[in-house]
Amino acid sequence: MKQVTLIRTATISGAIAVAAGALGAHGLEGRITTELLTAFQTGARYHLVHSVVLLVLALNSGNQYKSGFWLITAGILLFSGSLYGLALSSLAGLQLSILGPLTPAGGLLLIAGWLVTGWRAVQIKKGGI
Predict the structure, then answer these.
(1) CA atoms within a 13 Å half-sphere pointing along the CA-CB vector of 128
(2) What is the pLDDT of residues 75-108, one digit of tens each?
(3) What is the rounded distance in angstroms from the CA atom of residue 51 to the CA atom of residue 21?
(4) Predicted TM-score of the model (pTM)
(5) Among 48, 77, 93, 102, which residue has the least CB neighbours within 10 Å?
């Protein structure tokens, strides 16, 4: 995978996270329940933080952290995406409860991404990879 693809993925993710944060701060209050708004804002916060992590990993020369990068990307899609979907579907009067189980699965992928990245860093530091 080319480094430019990783950088593009990270920056597009960051832009979407900022847009989601703005929507949560200015466009949803009073239109969805407080509980769903809080969930949406949690998704946006995790999305933005992990987009910064993606950019740091993408800028690492040699892309030694590619596995962690893609685990975190998948985690963002499932964790934040499911929270966005749950909140926004309520605007249309839908209840997409099928999205509920995706949130913890996404959280597990985020955790796995951090752990794999840490493991890689230790291996690189030891000269093992």
Answers:
(1) 7
(2) 999 999 999 999 999 998 888 889 999 999 999 9
(3) 13
(4) 0.93
(5) 93
